[in-house]
């Protein structure tokens, strides 16, 4: 079998076809999100725990408690519960950092908010508190700080691989 060299101007078409194939294959599956709420430190006074629960339960459906929920870099984070979201939903990460306390809640947007609760737009910024981040890719609510570098890496990898393949085909 003899390979034919692709015309030099077909590279953008090949790249576009590969990108469409990658996007369509990833969107065919259901959206999955990490679903958890971080536990409070044992030193938190009982009255403060009750006050926080009252506030949280008024607006949110709390997912399962997990000690690893607050830290996606923790080795045990991958054991956190995962849940399927309905079509058109988003994964969320809500985080509050106050006086050394870090509180994190993750899940599907439609499952986290109670009916009738108005969704407040808060900036997605891990350096500010509170921070509410939304995303629409499976398990994307683990961390939001490294996502851009990940996509740049994938793009460069695909681009360099295609360039290499085209150069091989042209050499034949």
UniProtKB/TrEMBL annotation:
It comes from the Eukaryota. Residues 1-30 form the signal peptide. InterPro entries: QVR-like, Sleep_regulator. Pfam families: QVR. Keywords: Glycoprotein, Membrane, Signal, Transmembrane, Transmembrane helix. One of its GO terms (biological process) is sleep. The chain crosses the membrane at residues 148-169. This is Protein quiver.
């Amino acid at each position: 079998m003899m390979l034919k060299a692709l015309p030099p101007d077909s590279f953008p078409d090949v790249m576009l076809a590969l990108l469409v194939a990658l996007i369509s294959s990833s969107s065919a599956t259901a959206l999955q999100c990490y679903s958890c709420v971080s536990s409070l430190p044992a030193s938190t006074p009982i009255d403060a725990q009750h006050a926080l629960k009252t506030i949280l339960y008024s607006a949110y459906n709390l997912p399962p408690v997990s000690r690893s929920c607050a830290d996606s870099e923790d080795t045990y984070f991958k054991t956190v519960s995962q849940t399927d979201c309905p079509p058109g939903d988003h994964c969320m990460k809500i985080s509050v950092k106050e006086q050394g306390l870090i509180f994190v809640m993750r899940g599907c947007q439609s499952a986290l908010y109670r009916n009738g609760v108005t969704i407040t737009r808060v900036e997605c910024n891990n350096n500010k508190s509170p921070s509410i981040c939304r995303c629409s890719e499976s398990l994307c609510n683990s961390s939001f700080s490294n996502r851009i570098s990940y996509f740049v890496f994938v793009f460069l990898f695909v681009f360099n691989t295609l360039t290499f393949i085209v150069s091989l085909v042209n050499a034949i």
